[in-house]
């Protein structure tokens, strides 16, 4: 077969594989499986099977990468055989993703979905790099090597294997985001609203230093954000102590908590973003009320759930009081301006 025909055929082989990976990725992003949930689901066996598929994916990627590491490249027949084995392992990954029962937790399913999509994205880029190799667009193999490593990295990620681990991770990420927002607010208060020459916020700088009342209001707002930070910290501790992954009720509770706290970062950001222009007291108060309501809802949920015990009443009461106190102080300090 002529050299040009060989290149064309191999390009088509890789293009078809790329398209299949893209289609599978879209299916995973857009919908849930309609499969019946197995009555005999074995969690340990399931994750052992996932690890085995990850290992095969890594091996098949490595085989293809080595086959196209130097010329002469494999024949069309051998290329098809190598691609077929990689595609088989990819479909095994998709199949096992869909076989994870939703009853094991929506949060777990979401986390695993993100891992699978990351693997598929790395595979698609890897296959694209092979196509470039046969078309002499990537003669030194840098992209092939990079995306071979990308697949290796993706399948080497430490998997979260139950809803408790996933909920704890989500809360930890939320805690870190709230901490960052609080530091930003406290730094702005320290600077009394004056942008320094190194400020990254060039779009909406403060037009003038804050008034004494501005600073008082913002300090009270900082108290609300600190309260939320402590609420998320306590929620994460409660999940780690009392999170239940053995009952459907316990798993559902973890999902509900993650859903409830998913708005925390946005609500905190809405409040903190008000520091970058002349302080609008009405907007600030409204955002403070929204934040305090979310704090109360999270605390109520924790109090009513199996994630807290009688001995947790003290900190639940304390944070509930702190929320009410900071909101009242905010309104009191805003009143003269309004």
From TrEMBL:
<protein>
    <submittedName>
        <fullName>Uncharacterized protein</fullName>
    </submittedName>
</protein>
<dbReference type="InterPro" id="IPR049318">
    <property type="entry name" value="GCIP_C"/>
</dbReference>
<dbReference type="GO" id="GO:0005737">
    <property type="term" value="C:cytoplasm"/>
</dbReference>
<keyword id="KW-0963">Cytoplasm</keyword>
<dbReference type="GO" id="GO:0005634">
    <property type="term" value="C:nucleus"/>
</dbReference>
<feature type="domain" description="Cyclin-D1-binding protein 1-like N-terminal">
    <location>
        <begin position="50"/>
        <end position="189"/>
    </location>
</feature>
<comment type="similarity">
    <text>Belongs to the CCNDBP1 family.</text>
</comment>
<dbReference type="Pfam" id="PF20936">
    <property type="entry name" value="GCIP_C"/>
</dbReference>
<dbReference type="Pfam" id="PF13324">
    <property type="entry name" value="GCIP_N"/>
</dbReference>
<dbReference type="InterPro" id="IPR026907">
    <property type="entry name" value="GCIP-like"/>
</dbReference>
<feature type="domain" description="Cyclin-D1-binding protein 1-like C-terminal">
    <location>
        <begin position="206"/>
        <end position="299"/>
    </location>
</feature>
<dbReference type="InterPro" id="IPR049317">
    <property type="entry name" value="GCIP-like_N"/>
</dbReference>
<keyword id="KW-0131">Cell cycle</keyword>
<keyword id="KW-0539">Nucleus</keyword>
């Amino acid at each position: 077969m002529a050299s040009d025909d060989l290149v064309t055929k191999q390009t088509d082989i890789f293009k078809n594989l790329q398209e299949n990976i893209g289609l599978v990725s879209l299916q995973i992003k857009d919908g849930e499986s309609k499969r019946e949930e197995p009555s005999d689901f074995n969690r340990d066996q399931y994750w052992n099977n996932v690890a085995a598929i990850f290992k095969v994916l890594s091996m098949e990627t490595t085989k293809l990468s080595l086959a196209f590491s130097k010329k002469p490249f494999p024949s069309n027949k051998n290329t098809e055989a190598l691609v077929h084995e990689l595609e088989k392992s990819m479909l095994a990954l998709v199949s096992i993703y869909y076989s994870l029962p939703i009853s094991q937790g929506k949060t777990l399913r979401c986390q695993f979905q993100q891992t699978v999509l990351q693997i598929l994205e790395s595979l698609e880029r890897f296959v694209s790099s092979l196509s470039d190799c046969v078309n002499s667009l990537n003669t030194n193999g840098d992209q092939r090597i990079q995306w071979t490593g990308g697949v290796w990295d993706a399948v080497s990620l430490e998997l979260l294997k139950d809803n408790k681990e996933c909920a704890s991770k989500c809360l930890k990420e939320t805690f870190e985001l709230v901490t960052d927002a609080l530091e930003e607010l406290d730094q702005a208060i320290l600077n009394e609203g004056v942008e320094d020459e190194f400020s990254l916020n060039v779009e909406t700088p403060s037009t003038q230093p804050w008034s004494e009342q501005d600073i008082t209001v913002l300090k009270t707002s900082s108290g609300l954000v600190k309260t939320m930070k402590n609420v998320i910290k306590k929620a994460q501790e409660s999940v780690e102590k009392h999170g239940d992954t053995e009952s459907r009720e316990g798993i559902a509770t973890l999902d509900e908590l993650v859903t409830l706290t998913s708005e925390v970062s946005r609500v905190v950001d809405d409040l903190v973003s008000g520091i970058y222009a002349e302080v609008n007291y009405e907007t600030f108060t409204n955002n403070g009320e929204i934040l305090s309501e979310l704090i109360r809802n999270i605390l109520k949920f924790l109090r009513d759930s199996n994630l807290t015990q009688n001995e947790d009443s003290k900190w639940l009461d304390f944070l509930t009081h702190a929320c009410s106190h900071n909101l009242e102080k905010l309104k009191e300090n805003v009143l003269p301006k309004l």
